[in-house]
């Protein structure tokens, strides 16, 4: 999965270079690149591969789950600090949202979510009441993502909602690869009185097919230090409150 991180940074890779870097055979590298190609996120060529730039391309949940793991955990910890006993909270689908849920075990709360991994993580805990959103299961997000899901969230008024996204562009717009997912995220965001956006630095500077909100829609944005000066200016210009999870206070 480290290959994908290199692809994200360099946009292209060479099989021979990767085999030497990781001390594996060229066949092993080609197998990994073939796995990415089947997801539609790279195009392979003789001797290498390059990252596709399609606005509707989304990596699998499994692939996203091994990217920026430590950063997502720190963001999740900071977000969990804003959850109080007695809160009713909504948790979005996504790997950053799952990292946040992993920090809630000792909270006495109600959780409403459309994320199957979050349900599996929190089920059976006597201090957490779970409500699962209905709808059609979508494997790339491992959650319920359909118009029925959006309709369900449109009837709710939770204390806090914790949302993630796939991309945030230079205008502060939040975007995802799939139209239905954007529709669900808009409804989910409206369902919380206080809105939190959880976004690691890899999300900035990317634009996908469907917009679902603006940075200015959120009361709190939790990200990380190490973001560029341009992104920091963007965040400070749009956010009511910005938290950098790994900064030293």
Structure description:
It is a single chain. This protein is of the alpha/beta class. Helices cover 36% and strands 24% of the residues. Strands 6-5-4-9-12-14-15 form a seven-stranded parallel beta sheet, with helices on both faces. A three-stranded antiparallel beta sheet has the order 1-3-2. It is globular. The two termini are 33 Å apart. 41% of the residues are buried. The model has no long low-confidence stretch (mean pLDDT 87).
Strand order of the largest sheet: 6-5-4-9-12-14-15
Number of strands: 15
Which radius of gyration do the C-alpha atoms yield? 18 Å
Helix content: 25-40%
Decide which structural class fits the backbone: alpha/beta
| Mean pLDDT, all residues | 87
Keywords:
about 250 residues, alpha/beta, 7-stranded parallel β-sheet, WH-like_DNA-bd_sf
Topology (SSEs and partners):
Layout (H helix, E strand, L loop, with lengths): L1 H9 L1 E3 H8 L3 H13 L3 E4 L2 E4 L9 H5 L3 H12 L7 E4 L3 H7 L7 E5 L2 H7 L5 E5 L4 E2 L4 E2 L2 H7 L4 E6 L3 E2 L4 E4 L2 H12 L1 E7 L11 E5 L5 E4 L5 H10 L3 E3 L5
Parallel strand pairs: 4-5, 4-9, 5-6, 9-12, 12-14, 14-15
Antiparallel strand pairs: 1-3, 2-3, 7-8, 10-11, 11-13
Helix pairs in contact: 2-3, 5-6, 8-9
């Amino acid at each position: 999965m480290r290959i994908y991180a290199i692809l994200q940074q360099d946009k292209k890779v060479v099989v021979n270079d990767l085999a030497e870097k990781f001390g594996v055979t060229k066949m092993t590298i080609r197998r990994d690149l073939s796995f990415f190609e089947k997801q539609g996120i790279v195009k392979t060529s003789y001797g290498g591969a390059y990252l596709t730039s399609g606005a509707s391309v989304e990596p699998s949940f499994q692939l996203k789950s091994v990217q920026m793991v430590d950063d997502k955990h720190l963001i999740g910890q900071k977000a969990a600090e804003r959850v109080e006993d007695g809160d009713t909270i909504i948790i979005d689908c996504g790997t950053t949202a799952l990292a946040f849920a992993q920090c809630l075990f000792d909270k006495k709360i109600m959780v409403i979510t459309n994320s199957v991994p979050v349900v599996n993580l929190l089920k059976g805990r006597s201090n957490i009441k779970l409500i699962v959103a209905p709808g059609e299961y979508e494997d790339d997000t491992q959650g319920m993502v359909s118009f029925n899901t959006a309709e369900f969230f449109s009837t709710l008024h939770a204390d806090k909602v914790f949302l993630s996204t796939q991309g945030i562009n230079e205008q502060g717009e939040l975007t995802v690869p799939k139209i239905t997912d954007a529709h669900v995220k808009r409804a989910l965001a409206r369902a919380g009185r206080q809105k939190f956006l959880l976004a690691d630095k890899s999300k900035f500077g990317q634009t996908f097919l469907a917009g679902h909100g603006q940075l200015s829609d959120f009361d709190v944005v939790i990200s990380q230090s190490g973001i560029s000066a341009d992104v920091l200016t963007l965040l400070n210009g749009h956010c009511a409150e910005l938290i950098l999870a790994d900064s030293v206070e």
